[in-house]
Write a structure and sequence with these properties.
There is one protein chain. The chain is of the alpha+beta class and 273 residues long. The protein is built from 11 helices and 9 strands. It has a 9-stranded mixed β-sheet. The radius of gyration is 28 Å and the shape is elongated. The mean pLDDT is 84.
Length: 273
Amino acid sequence: MYLKENLKLLRKRRKRSQEEVSKSLSITRSAYNSYENGVAEPSIQILIRISDYYQVNIDKLLKVDLSHISEIQLSQLEKGFDLDLSGTRLRVLTTSVNTDNEENIELVPIKAKAGYTTGYADPDFIRTLPAFNLPFLSKHKKYRTFPISGDSMPPVLDGAFVTGEYLVDWNHVKNGNPYIVITQDDGIVFKVLYNRIEEDGSFLLCSTNPMYEPYSVKAESILEIWKFVNYINPKFEEPKATETDELGPTLRIIQREIGLIKDKVRNIEDRIH
């Protein structure tokens, strides 16, 4: 248990004396001192008061060495956010493996998209997903591919499939980078993220399409976060012509014709030699 270490740490961070804390808890200074020194253990009633005073739940007070967590997480705890900021509740990630005992890349089909938020931790559900492997991706990381709908994230088109790398610690989200976010309410969304955990325990989700407004999602409502790796578009999108790029399609036709002519010249030269 880490109670004595945590009590001392939390008190000093608040710049309070043992006398001040003990008065707030309605106990004697000597009693509180004995808790900090590990000489005595508080009753459950006193423990509840301590938990309320520091706004840290009893489980964390007893089982987590708060000196070893990040400053962001500790700050959030002190603000009353008892959140799973690093995604530790998701660490038992359900996966599938191939015949060589290597992790597959599971693909969530369109039909399975709606059920993913309830089945993501169910081994039977994960086993039903199509699986494949990409040799250019690391065998030491976990990947999954998700269907994307809508036009909020160009150049990724509606109907595309986006592959993400499982993110263990959500504090490692890099502002301005794209991620796949799984929430209970919104399901699977593909957005550019901004980490606001330190400010209010949330993430800001933005689109690359300026027609869509940014919105915030509380960290506690997020089930999984996957870092963008690559995507497959369902069709080829012609670049949009601008005033200075009207000849784009014509130039591509000319390039193709030049290539065909070069091939014919090579064939003739080969026959001559």
